[in-house]
Amino acid sequence: MTRLPLYLAAGTLLAGCATSPPPITDFTGNSGSPRAPEQLAVTFEQVDLALRVDPATKSISGDAALTFLLKEPLTRIAVELDRNLPVDSASVDGVALAPSAISNPDGRLYLTLPAPLPAGARTTVRIKYHGVPHTAKKAPWDGGFTWSQTKDGQPWIATTVEGEGCDLFWPCIDHPTGKPQLIDLHITVPAPLVVAGNGVATGMEEKDGWRTYHWRAKNPSTYGVALNIGPYETLTGSYASRYGNSVPLQMWYLKGHEQQARGLFKEFAPMLDFFEYRVGPYPFGDEKMGVVETPHLGMEHQTVNAYGNNYVKSPYGYDWLLHHELSHEWFGNQMTNADWDDMWLHEGFGSYMQPLYLEWLRGEREFQTELFTFRKRLANKAPVVSGKSQRIEDIYQDERGGPGNDIYSKGALILHTLRNLIGDEAFFTATRRMVYGTATPAPGNFQPRWSSTKEFIRFANEASGSDLNWFFDAYLYHAALPELVEERSERQLKLHWKLKDGGVFPLPVEVRINDRIEKLPMTNGVGEVALPPRAMVTIDPMSRVLRQQDHIDQWQADEKKKPNDDAPPAAGATTGGAAVRL
User: Fold this and answer.
1) For the whole model, what pTM was predicted?
2) End-of-domain residue from the set 230, 256, 285
3) Is 51 in contact with 172 (CB distance < 8 Å)?
């Protein structure tokens, strides 16, 4: 999650502070703007970030050293940083920069180098800054800091920056492809607070009433770097991977929640086992699978997923939020979309994993129930993929013409239809290639990677041995669902696919005739079958095909007419549904 859809907010108490957040520019408030030429010209190798977080003043002070390898000659370095965090000083390879060499007009920080650098050079820029960071009004649906308190009045702090980006609290390249290869975090907080961090803990020091926690993470997704600070207690364990390695497990929870945390902790290993069986090895097995209790609902922060679901299981008997955020370790952190326009790869796959998990955990009824819950939500107002570079809010906000929550539920149902079209072997082969870059992943033979809609289509074509562009064009690049038109007489059933924007759609369809199921190949989008007298006929009896259906359209229209006296139900909390914005 990525972030959860707003309909999941109902009934959730989100803690915050009364302080008005500083204004941020449109540039800073929208992650994923095109990278500057200076950013395209470098490999982002390393971050060494020291950050002091002061709950008393709701302020931070940072000291960030960023190391770049130049692929082209450069005269300046460009990173993103909220301009409301003033830069106190900057240097390049130890040489201090004059104020005139530092420019941050709208959130893109330019540092003019003391002298031009050639291709192949490696340079480290150091940026010292401070300020009052942006406060999230309703985390995780908007970004910033949540300055909360526990019941006994201790500070409880979290960051969520998916929509606005990493530049809300550290200088970074705020784009999905802006991952540094390595980040060292040194987070200083008042004692006895605890910092749950990304990656591997490398130590803790305490001095003068302050603690500094050290964490190291490899290839972190930019919005997956997070601060989680509180009076935490911990649970630890390990998961014996089906790939032969051992994965450390860690859970940070608040005092008084030990029994609930232990109950959640028991779900870690079964969920990991499911993902490893269906997709492949846990991507960060040499670091950890971590979960931290937060004052907001949740977010897929790499190796330390945020969890604020109050330890409430869904009616299916599992924690849907834990499962959804864990899915993003594969679909979001190991495989990151190359552009926000490809965000359905995060959320569609992450959402589809939930009914698949329920199929294994509970059976066919729960599997189909969850798929139908997805189906009822579809808006179909905008294509899932636009085919052009997008900022993240262009995807999530309906008013900007984005697909919004359809990247979750519709994305999942498109994948379900694809899987039934090409079969499990081809479907999961294409999925593994997208996630790992190989169809035979094993610990040590893959690295985090970026993928795109076009690449996944290529993988699906190659795995199936078919040209499936007609399938993806209809489902991903057009808003309206394909319509299956029926013509029935006493002895014959004729079917043909109709696309709103035209074109041939040869998607096979199953038809149940009395007790017999026949699969129509729908060559050229048309099929027919003979019927016995007074036949009982069901189209697509196993619900394997996503299509336009009049009865659902009518139900949605009727729902919109109902008085909206109360907030909509928290769908995920009651059905185990997918989590958007998490």
Assistant:
1) 0.94
2) 230
3) no
By residue range, what is the domain housing residue 513?
483-545
**Taking CA 177 as the corner, what is the angle to CA 172 and CA 181, rounded to the nearest 5 degrees?**
65
Compute the distance between CA of residue 417 and CA of residue 427 in angstroms, rounded to an integer. Answer: 10
Give SS3 for 185. strand
The series of mean pLDDT values per 10 residues for the chain, 582 residues long, is 41 36 84 97 98 98 98 98 97 98 97 98 98 95 96 97 97 98 98 98 98 98 97 98 98 98 98 98 98 98 98 97 98 98 98 98 98 97 97 91 96 98 98 98 97 98 98 98 95 97 96 97 97 96 98 96 59 39 69
Q: Which residue has the tokens 């005739």?
A: 513
Q: Is 195 part of any domain?
A: yes
Which of the 8 DSSP states describes residue 525?
G
Say how far apart CA 238 and CA 551 lie, in whole Å: 48
Which residues, in sequence order, are CB contacts of 550 under 8 Å at separation 6+? none
What CA–CA distance (Å, rounded) separates 227 from 145? 9
The residue among 111, 115, 108 whose CA lies nearest residue 127 is: 111
Tally of structural domains, the chain: 2
